[in-house]
Amino acid sequence: MGADSFAVLAAGTSDPVGPGIPLIILAVGIVIVIGMIVVLRANAFLALIVAAMVVSLMSPGPVGERVSRVATAFGITAGKIGVVIALAAIIGDCLIASGAADRVVRMFVGLFGQKRCEVSLMASGFVLSVPVFFDTVFYLLLPLARSMHRQTRKSYLLLILAMGAGASITHSMVPPTPGPLIIAETLGVNLGVMIGIGLLCSLPTAFVVLLLVRAVAARIEIPMRALDGGRAESEPLPDERLPGLFMSLLPIVLPVLLITTDTVVSSLAKGTEADSPLKTAAGWTALLGNPNLAMMLSAAVALHVLWHHRKPGREGLAKMIETSLMSAGVIILITSAGGAFGLMLKEAQIGAAIRDLSVGGATPLGGLKLLLMGFFVAFLIKFAQGSSTISMMTTSAMMATLIPPADVLGYHPVYIACAIGFGAQCGNWMNDSGFWVFAKMGGLTEIETLKTWTVTVSSTALIGLVFVILFATILPLT
Questions:
Q1: Is 211 in a helix, a strand, or coil?
Q2: From CA 374, how far away is CA 421, in angstroms rounded?
Q3: Among residues 292, 298, 398, which one has the least CA distance to residue 351?
Q4: Per-residue DSSP letters for 395-449?
Q5: What is the pLDDT of residues 375-431, one digit of tens each?
Q6: Nearest to 251 by CA among 130, 125, 120, 136
Q7: Which regions in the chain score pLDDT beneath 50?
Q8: What is the CA radius of gyration of the chain?
């Protein structure tokens, strides 16, 4: 970058910069994020906020605002997703502590039977990973998988692969998990649409992946080994000590129902008279379907279930909520820093530079090209630094600068969000915490994990991409 280019940046002009400068800024930002996380082992929040600062300093705009706009962008993102993430953490912990998660698992076992226990475990992981983080779901379901193996003698590898695959799919595809939540926010996708299409793409993917894990387990035999450190096998609680099925499912289903109902009613109400019943209903669904209120109602239900069935006392309940919020606080900081990084990439005019590089600036990018770009950029960032959430944040920030109007794109931007979500699952290997959770908790060696878990999750991502392309073609939502 020559002296003239630096002069343009230093002048604080908001005019377009040279064609190569935005790409240099993008490269610098990504190198900072990956370098600080992988090489310096820095916290993801620090890496993202430093990258946002550097990108902002290199981007056009008034010199005096280049630092303050980072803080403003951070606050905007935190204001939009912070409450949802905090309440989701409370809901997840309440589901575990109250026994509601156990009740959901046993419901699936009863539904599919022990002969199809791998289906029960996949369905349990799929559902529970919507409000609960992947690592927690794996810890929760592993004792059940080990018990099922002892009772049925079904392949242990089959059971834990099905369980992990189900949990990993919704972890990257369905809000309020932080990754898909920040993708939806960054790309401007309605949360109800993200939930609906995320589930639409995830369900057939899970079905095909179930066939895949059966094939993998048929080829590779891995015994169930003793738990590390001589830990005792936990005994499941008796049914009479668990909450009822309705109250166990309600904290999971309620926010999904309220948010998607608002999306549907709001769409139907467009173009109707101001005093029409549908317009009135849309006002109420907009209130109840606001993600913050929907999650708050769900958290209230989850806390009620915990209080009624475990009677933790006021001090115990307060301590559990505090623990939940402490874990959520870290996620909120990281997610908000990722949002700030994304908004600074927009300030750098990266979208126009990539369009010029791809099509000579003649027409905007659209169609299949953007879906593939979203998927493979997410895969590369995930492979380089290990975190699916960081991959989703960084990729969505870049892709947000490229999305053209709907008539040019040819489909709803939610499909780009889904492509990014699946891409962030691909390439799960030794720099990913999920790899080590599966290996150490499951009792597999590193080589066994690479041959089974890495292959399964990467194949899941590619299968998911196929369904994203299919639904973007037959159900474009434009």
A1: helix
A2: 9
A3: 398
A4: HHHHHHTT---HHHH-S-THHHHHHHHHHTTSS--TTSHHHHIIIIIHT--HHHH
A5: 999 998 888 877 888 889 889 988 888 888 777 788 999 999 999 999 999 988 887
A6: 130
A7: 1-16, 230-232, 362
A8: 23
**Sequence ranges of the domains in the chain:** 3-474
Dist. CA 5–CA 145, nearest whole Å: 60
Burial of 10 (0-12, 13-18, 19+ CB in 10 A): exposed
Model-level pTM? 0.80
Asked if residue 99 lies in contact with residue 309, where contact means CB atoms within 8 angstroms, the answer is yes
Helix locations, 1-133, DSSP H: 3-10, 21-34, 44-58, 68-98, 100-112, 117-128
Give me 299's structure tokens: 């958290």
DSSP secondary structure string for all residues of 327-349: HHHHHHHHHHHHHHHHHHHHHTT
3-state SS, residue 290: coil
Mapped to the 3 state alphabet, what secondary structure does 119-169 carry? HHHHHHHHHHCCCCCHHHHHHHHHHHHHHHHHHHCCCHHHHHHHHHHHHHH
d(CA 171, CA 174): 6
8 Å CB contact between 394 and 30: yes
Q: Is the dihedral of CA 106, 110, 114, 119 positive or negative?
A: negative
